[in-house]
Amino acid sequence: IFKQYPCIFRVDNFYEMFNIAQVFAIQPLPRGKNVAIITGSGSIGILACDELEKQGLILAKLGENTIQSMRAVAPDWVSLKNPVDLGPSQMITLNPALKAIFNDINVDSVLFLFTVPRLPLELLGVSIMPSLRIIKNLSSKFKKPCIICVFGSRWVFDFILKPALRFQIPVMARVKEAIMAFKMMYKYNQYLLSL
């Protein structure tokens, strides 16, 4: 019955329902299927790529200008092809990478996989607020949705969640849900464009 109605989407549980509804409520609809992934862990980025493929979305091919912009601030060992694996340099390269990726015409959605553990966050007294402000401004400017997926303890999740909600940036613990949200938003946008 769900297939008969183009704007009714099936989810598997309440977590998916509420998380995906939240993304619809506070993020712009993607124009296409191309997703950029920013991560601090290459292995988590690859898992997200696998889920993208399962959901029928596309790993965005980043433009040369995007890669050059990131290369100007990133160490040589950082992988700047999508998924962008900033590794331990994440705290200094994240904001320039976000700006370059949102500005890329080949990118329709941005998935940020936050993988920094609790101890460095506490020891360094890191604030995520400047990055969240940049995400909010760029998402609004370029009309591209962004979802943050947090890998780590409940403390790390809350460290991101509380300030992210102030900037209306959705935060999830499961990559599958984030990618499902992008897929459903894309399908909904295609339906609206067909009217």
From TrEMBL:
Keywords: ATP-binding, Ligase, Nucleotide-binding. Gene3D superfamilies: Succinyl-CoA synthetase domains. GO terms for molecular function: ATP binding; ligase activity. The keyword Secreted does not apply. The keyword Ligase applies. InterPro entries: Acyl-CoA_Synth/Transferase, Succinyl-CoA_synth-like. PANTHER family: 3-HYDROXYPROPIONATE--COA LIGASE [ADP-FORMING] (PTHR43334:SF1), ACETATE--COA LIGASE [ADP-FORMING] (PTHR43334). This is Ligase-CoA domain-containing protein. It comes from marine sediment metagenome.
